[in-house]
Design a protein that fits this description.
The complex is a heterotrimer of chains A (207), B (289) and C (126). With 207 residues, chain A is mainly alpha-helical. Chain A is built from twelve helices and one strand; from the N terminus they run E-H-H-H-H-H-H-H-H-H-H-H-H. In chain A, helix 9 runs antiparallel to helix 10 and helix 9 packs parallel to helix 11. Chain B is globular, with a radius of gyration of 21 Å. The chains are: A mainly alpha (207), B alpha/beta (289), C alpha/beta (126).
């Protein structure tokens, strides 16, 4: 009989270590050699709001995807202004995976992110503006369509506007129509813009 | 005609337009990884209309705005619960057990020098871990040369008790051949069947809460986790925590089986999708720290 | 003569619809995926003559997807076009190192997309 019974359920010695201990010790554990210890530290730091800056600082230098994931989860759980402030610089990172994970994480904190949206949408760097628009597209915030319409009317960069069209395809309503209708006129030489705005308008009409 | 009849028994609630249905299915897929097709239209419509009513929304447009813009995600949770069916029975989605015995176990046998560990989570009333046991005994030719541990966990102590007892009705055994039924079960009065003691006692049942790290810490160095039709019920934060906890419980190179219509593509990038005889399995990287 | 099959991987619906529109007009059969993991799942599950992969995607970006793709013996040589908003040399190099064959910059123009797809799949121009 190949099946062997090995009792895990009642094995207290297998309890995880590093469970919500002293925050200072946990901060040190964030820099431990083993990824499993760093993950445990991040998981436990999730209950300390003041840990947000330290978690973000580790995020930027952390090489293990599994640890980054737990840090992001901790930040999403904290959902605080400090977490947002720590994540915003990631939008400028050269690290594509970090950028995209930060966008996703910020998307889980619509209310805390709101005060920062305007300045992000006015950033000099078009890449930051694209990322800000991408966050908006994932935001469960009632004002998001209005912000996206403003981008369509004013942003000079075609890819920023393309991202905003995509956002409105998901979140747009009747009020969004005029900004969409006017967009191809701003970029007459871009077949993609003409197509995408038509697609977004069609989708808005369906709800 | 059908639409008229349905409208009649729904107090004149209009059905969804084709575009609304498509939009809804898109959204639901994006958020849960579950894809509903045309064949499920009545199923979906019915439940969406119920939720529109239950949430106090005026119409589909109103409801759609609610589920998209409600940061709490509460209605979305209710919607997911309404959309998913909880039935469990022996050899449910058994193409995955076939993938287990034909490819995954042989692969792991080559890798591991210690017992191979399989975990059914949640195990509910036991059909899944017992199906795994039977599938292994019936279909893995090399089973006798290896030690295999099957662990089974659930948050609900009542279903665990039922699982340990191992008594099932006809409905639960519908996919088992008469042969398998005779081989592994004893018939009881009242069309009930009891799984043989040897199989029952070979499974390690225990309580677990997937989002509680201390609870999950008891399970380490697992090789295969069956986590079917659980993660869809979680909100985004809990789902991340659960997937990370499962990652933690697996040895490098270990596998996760999700439910038939679920996908890691909406959950996490910690696992690598792999094609294993017609199913997609997710593997923790061999060098996964 | 059967149609050549293209997998389009981009998290933006409007972009996927655009590529579908352009490529279907040129006689290609198009399948969509919304992120790198889904793209990998589709590529593993079916035969494609060409993959169009966006770089900036959530959960798994295009670089990672192409790297994983190339690890699979069956997908080692399927042609891949990496598509991005970035135009820097470093990004282009990175895409090639990950295993892409061609690098295109958004917004993509229909004629260029069609021509590249025909070239990489060996499809005849209609």
């Amino acid at each position: 009989m190949p099946l062997v019974r090995a009792d895990r359920a009642a094995d207290p010695s297998a309890e995880g270590h590093g469970d919500s201990g002293d925050p200072h010790a946990l901060l040190e554990e964030l820099y431990a050699a083993e990824a499993s210890r760093r993950r445990a530290a991040a998981r436990n730091l999730a209950m300390y709001p003041h840990a947000a800056p330290a978690l973000c600082a580790r995020l930027v230098v952390e090489p293990a995807a599994s640890v980054r994931s737990v840090i992001f989860t901790a930040l999403i759980g904290l959902r605080s202004d400090a977490a947002v402030q720590g994540l915003l610089p990631c939008l400028r990172s050269e690290d594509v995976a970090l950028r995209n994970a930060a966008i996703e994480a910020l998307g889980h904190m619509p209310d805390v992110l709101e005060p920062y949206i305007r300045s992000l949408l006015e950033d000099d760097d078009s890449d930051v503006r694209i990322f800000a628009v991408n966050v908006l597209g994932a935001l469960a915030h009632a004002q998001a369509p209005r912000w996206l319409e403003a981008v369509l009317r004013c942003d000079p960069h075609v890819n920023v506007c393309a991202a905003a069209v995509e956002g409105l395809a998901e979140l747009g309503d009747q009020e969004s129509r005029s900004a969409l209708v006017d967009l191809p006129g701003r970029f007459p030489d871009e077949p993609f813009i003409a197509f995408a705005t038509k697609a977004a308008l069609a989708r808005i009409g369906t709800v | 005609m059908e639409a008229l009849l349905r409208a009649a028994d729904h107090d004149v609630q209009p059905a969804l337009s084709p575009e609304q249905f498509a939009r809804f299915c898109d959204f639901f897929y994006h958020h849960t990884g579950i894809l509903f097709g045309e064949s499920k239209r009545y199923f979906v419509e019915r439940r969406v209309l119920d939720r529109i009513r239950a949430s106090g929304s005026e119409d589909f447009r109103d409801y759609f705005a609610l589920i998209r813009f409600d940061a709490s995600g509460r209605e979305l949770q209710s919607l997911v619960n309404a959309m998913t069916v909880n039935e469990t029975y022996f050899f449910r989605e058994d193409y995955q057990f076939a993938a287990l015995t034909s490819d995954v176990l042989p692969y792991l046998a080559g890798l591991r020098q210690r017992p191979i560990r399989i975990w059914s989570l949640p195990c509910s009333t036991g059909e899944e871990p017992y199906s795994i046991a039977i599938a292994i005994l019936e279909n893995w030719n090399d089973a006798d040369e290896h030690a295999i541990e099957i662990h089974a966990s659930d948050i609900d102590s009542e279903v665990l008790a039922q699982a340990r007892a191992g008594i099932y009705g006809q409905r639960s055994l519908q996919r088992l051949s008469a042969q398998l039924r005779a081989r592994y079960f004893t018939a009881l009065p009242g069309e009930r069947f009891r799984l043989h003691e040897a199989i029952r006692s070979s499974i390690d049942f225990g309580p677990v809460n997937v989002v509680d790290p201390r609870s999950m810490a008891r399970y380490r160095d697992m090789d295969v986790v069956f986590c079917r039709n659980l993660l869809i019920y979680f909100d985004d934060l809990s789902r991340r925590q659960a997937v990370e906890a499962i990652y933690e419980s697996l040895a490098p190179g270990g596998f996760v089986f999700l439910g038939h219509s679920e996908s890691m593509s909406r959950m996490s990038s910690l696992f690598q999708p792999r094609k294993v005889s017609d199913s997609i399995v997710y593997q923790k990287p061999l060098d996964g720290e | 003569m059967s149609h050549k099959r293209i997998l389009v991987v981009d998290d933006a619906l409007t972009v996927r619809l655009f590529y579908r529109d352009v490529l279907e007009r040129a006689g290609f059969e198009v399948t969509e995926a919304g992120n790198g993991i889904e793209g990998l799942e589709r590529a593993l599950g079916d035969h494609f003559d060409l993959l169009l992969v966006d770089i900036n995607m959530p959960l798994m970006d295009g670089y990672e997807m192409v790297r994983h793709l190339r690890e699979d013996p069956g997908l080692h040589s399927v042609p891949v076009v990496a598509i991005s908003t970035e135009a820097k040399d470093a990004d282009v190099e990175r895409a090639y190192r990950a295993g892409a064959n061609v690098y295109m910059i958004k917004p993509v123009r229909p004629a260029r997309l069609t021509h590249t797809a025909q070239l990489l799949t060996g499809a005849r121009a209609s």
